[in-house]
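Regression test case RT-17, inverse folding.

Input:
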């Protein structure tokens, strides 16, 4: 697959609402563009290797070069894109090991979360909403889309961090989760994965309330590593989804 191939989701003819000079929350043009492009990258609408030029962005978003250049510098500094000599930018390539490392860091953070929650007096009431959500998903054989389930799963894990109250840990977890969202979505497409996840989440909650530190760690590790185990397949599927091809036709660059 050549890097110049364009994903179906954002072809050159796509219509995009121009950015406003100042959004409702006071965000400037460059910040708005960073947010929009970051969302496309983490959702793999702009997959690894996707070419980006200042001219295309100016035309697509209806803005001048100055905020475009500022946004691209921010995205490059944060590892989302890389500058190509005299050829603009491209979404940075990811490999299996990099995704596995994200899962490893996520696991370390979340094991600390459940360990701390199980070690203190965490009342069932603090986890009531999570209990309700995942019991309902299990009882109703969830009809939610894979993308919706991925968001719910993200909310579950970040919700535990919020209960713990460590804001720094929460920010780091949120940053990692943005990069892993597409893989969460693919994970939920596996047969039986929805029911498995529901039971794993409920097991984590049960072990926290029971103050079973070791049990909480085991339950959380089992839940997270189930997704990590299929990273290589998930990358191929994500590329196939982005380019509208069957997985067997994807050539790794």
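Golden output:
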């Amino acid at each position: 697959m050549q890097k110049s191939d364009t994903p179906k989701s954002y072809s050159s003819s796509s219509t995009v609402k121009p950015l406003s000079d100042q959004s409702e929350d006071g965000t400037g043009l460059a910040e708005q563009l960073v947010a929009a492009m970051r969302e496309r990258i983490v959702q793999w609408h702009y997959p690894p290797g996707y070419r980006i030029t200042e001219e295309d962005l100016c035309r697509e978003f209806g803005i001048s070069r100055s905020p475009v250049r500022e946004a691209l510098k921010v995205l490059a500094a944060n590892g989302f894109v890389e500058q190509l000599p005299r050829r603009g930018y491209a979404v940075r390539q990811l490999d299996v090991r990099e995704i596995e490392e994200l899962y490893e860091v996520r696991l370390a953070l979340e094991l600390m979360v459940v360990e701390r929650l199980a070690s203190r007096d965490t009342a069932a009431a603090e986890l009531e909403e999570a209990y309700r959500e995942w019991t309902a998903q299990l009882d109703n054989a969830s009809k939610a889309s894979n993308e919706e389930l991925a968001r719910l799963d993200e909310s579950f894990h970040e919700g535990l961090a919020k209960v713990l109250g460590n804001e720094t840990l929460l920010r780091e977890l949120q940053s990692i989760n943005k990069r892993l969202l597409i893989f969460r979505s693919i994970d939920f497409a596996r047969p039986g994965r929805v029911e498995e996840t529901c039971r794993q989440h409920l097991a984590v909650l049960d072990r926290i309330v029971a103050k079973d530190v070791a049990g909480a760690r085991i339950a959380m590790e089992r839940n997270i590593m189930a997704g990590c185990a299929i990273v290589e397949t998930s990358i191929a599927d994500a590329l196939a989804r982005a380019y509208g091809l069957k997985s067997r036709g994807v050539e790794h660059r």
